[in-house]
Amino acid sequence: EAQVTQNPRYLITVTGKKLTVTCSQNMNHEYMSWYRQDPGLGLRQIYYSMNVEVTDKGDVPEGYKVSRKEKRNFPLILESPSPNQTSLYFCASRPGPGRYYEQYFGPGTRLTVT
Amino acid sequence: KQEVTQIPAALSVPEGENLVLNCSFTDSAIYNLQWFRQDPGKGLTSLLLIQSSQREQTSGRLNASLDKSSGRSTLYIAASQPGDSATYLCAVVQGGSEKLVFGKGMKLTVNP
Lengths: 114, 112
Prior knowledge:
The complex is a heterodimer. Chain A is mostly beta strands. In chain A, strands 2, 4, 5, 6, 9, 10 and 11 form a seven-stranded mixed sheet that branches. Chain A has strands at 4-7, 10-13, 19-25, 31-38, 42-51, 54-57, 65-66, 76-78, 87-94, 104-105, 109-113. In chain A, 0% of the residues lie in helices and 50% in strands. In chain B, strands 2, 4, 5, 9, 10 and 11 form a six-stranded mixed sheet that branches. A five-stranded antiparallel sheet of chain B has the order 1-3-8-7-6, with no helix packed on it. Chain B is mostly beta strands.
């Protein structure tokens, strides 16, 4: 089954404790993205990657890091989480440029930073 | 900077009604416009995508139209059902960009 998986689905952590949210897709997609969703602000792109070792900032990259060492994985790293990073995070992937209709979203990771 | 607006933020209707969901965007130089559905605890599912050169797309009971010059799109849901209850999001891709810009969504409740 074609899918994007995220782990963990729920996470409660404390300020400053480094964490990684994993994202993996099984469709050999080139493009992967991370979004955060906040009430009243909607979905905003954090980072995206167009292929292995190719990443770029989205609209709200501050406080986040990403890496793309393998095509299937695109982890989101919070080196020193803060309460304003409490949010619902989504990973997405699609085959390549322009192929938006074939975009898949993961189920989301709800992060709470206290 | 592109801004996407969906009004109202929530809508509650009885089953069987035909619905129109609205989406507006400020910059008409878009590559495409997409409508998504979001269910609680799940990710987004793409419903319809309209390329900038198209006027509308249809899938089953759903019909989406695009008026690029006026910066508007509508999603028409025919004969609504309780299973249509979800949050619906509109998103655009700016020409020359690879980024999706989302509206804040509209929460739809269809009551039996």
